[in-house]
Amino acid sequence: MTIVFNVLIKCREGCEGPHEHQRTEHECGRPLGLAFEKSTGDLYIADAYMGLLKVGREGGLANQVSTRQLDKPLRFTNAVEIDPRTGVVYFTDSSSVYQRRNYIGAIMSGDRTGRLMKYDPNTNQVTTLLSNLAFANGVVMSQNGDYLLVAETATSRVLRYWLNDRSVSKSHEKYEIFAEGLPGFPDNIKRCPRGGFWVGLNTKHSKLTKFTMSNAWLGRAALGLPVDWMKVHSYWAKYKGNGMAVRLSEGSGVISEVFQGTIGNKWISISEVEERDGTLWVGSVNTPYTGVYKI
């Protein structure tokens, strides 16, 4: 991740070394999602500020994928997934209004300008598949490639977008609610080798977050106060945060397994869970390390 971060821009002055990157991330870049196109070796990067980027198999400078045909520019690129059969790239833009350095505003305001996007490297075309999403976040493709799951962080739900028209009945839209009422804010989604999907929940809901989510006007009013809500959230995550992950069944989207810490040994937050060979690899945007847990 550090190597990718450091080659995002040609001039890296002020973007290296042990300093607070959050202050300069809008200038230096902030990679949030990574995915390899295995047939070519290309690495695609969803950078919150630089947009969708690509690095060739030999490495080097990341090049920006052109999105000039979009009616709105990318403002908060978040997650990326690649179809191994076609090489088509799917990614999310969390908000057309708020940037990552003020992502709390996107949640508190009830913003619904997030998008699910598609990039076809064969035609160099970028299209919008879903719009009006409440903080579009993680995206993953099903095992057989017939649908995508996309996390809506601000509504604590996961949507399913059908890629195969034959899977959609004439009476239904191309997307549907896959899981809702999740016990926290969903972040990244990963396939589980034992079946289903792991969803990282950045933090569990409290009575306050539940009340605020059901009363969007309260969040918008709070944003008008002379308060740095990003600092408030940072403090809360550090001292009061309680992340968890849930495993959703592939068919019905119900919670089949829960991963969380115990009292005195809880996870501050969980952004992503990757399962490999009986081990959970746990990542978080709020901690400078990766957790490892044997199932």
UniProtKB/TrEMBL annotation:
Recorded hits in Pfam families, A to Z, give: Str_synth (PF03088)
What InterPro entries does this protein's entry cite? Answer: 6-blade_b-propeller_TolB-like, Strictosidine_synth_cons-reg
Gene Ontology CC: one annotated term: vacuole
Under the GO molecular function aspect, what terms does this record hold? Answer: hydrolase activity
Q: What is its main location?
A: other
Where in the cell does this protein reside? Vacuole
Q: Which domain of life is it from?
A: Eukaryota
The alphabetized UniProt keywords are: Glycoprotein, Signal, Vacuole
Checking SUPFAM superfamilies in the record gives: Calcium-dependent phosphotriesterase (SSF63829)
Record-annotated Strictosidine synthase conserved region domain positions: 78-165
PANTHER family, from UniProt?
PROTEIN STRICTOSIDINE SYNTHASE-LIKE 2, STRICTOSIDINE SYNTHASE-RELATED
Give the family per the record.
Belongs to the strictosidine synthase family.
Record protein name field: Strictosidine synthase conserved region domain-containing protein
